[in-house]
Amino acid sequence: MGFLSSLRDLRRQADEIDRTYDPGAQLRQGLAAMQQMRQQLAGQQATAHLATTGTPATATIVGLRQTGGYVNHAPLVEIRLMVTPVDRPPFPATHTGLVPPVYLGQLRPGGTVAVRYSPADPNSVAVVWGQPA
């Protein structure tokens, strides 16, 4: 009797799932998540390209804000910077990106980091971790 009762309970649960299951909604959620991941990947590729091809400079950390996101134990942090290029006046910029855990100790207002920026768009700044400022 206990086995048959468990089967009836399982069947009731399956019937409830069938009534509330919406494959279209699941598909829409999956497509939205994939689109978001594509956008994040494009942003990461642009930052990686900037980190290798941008103009090198030193930046002073003006402020920090943790966004709450993590990827592989690396926090996603918004860093407000004052970028000091060699050939032009300093300018403010903001970089939002993952910070490798080994460099978290360097993040403090007044600290300096090595950056690369786009001369065509000075708001595009990438912090180059592991490079002396």
Secondary-structure-derived class = alpha+beta
What is the strand content?
A: 35-45%
Q: What's the helix count?
A: 2
H/E element sequence: HHEEEEE
Helix content: 25-40%
Total number of beta strands: 5
Main sheet: strand order: 3-2-1-4-5
**Shape, please?**
elongated
Instruction: Report the uncertain regions.
Output: none
Our measurement of the CA-to-CA distance between the termini, rounded to an integer number of angstroms, reads: 74 Å
Mean pLDDT: 88
Quick one: biggest sheet?
5 strands, antiparallel
Please compute the radius of gyration using only Cα atoms: 24 Å
Give a structural overview:
With 133 residues, the chain is an alpha+beta fold. The chain has a five-stranded antiparallel β-sheet with strand order 3-2-1-4-5, with helices on one face. It has helices spanning 2-20, 23-53, and strands spanning 55-71, 74-84, 91-98, 112-118, 121-127. The protein starts with a helix and ends in a 6-residue tail after the last strand. The chain is elongated, with a radius of gyration of 24 Å. Strand 1 (55-71) and strand 2 (74-84) form a beta hairpin.
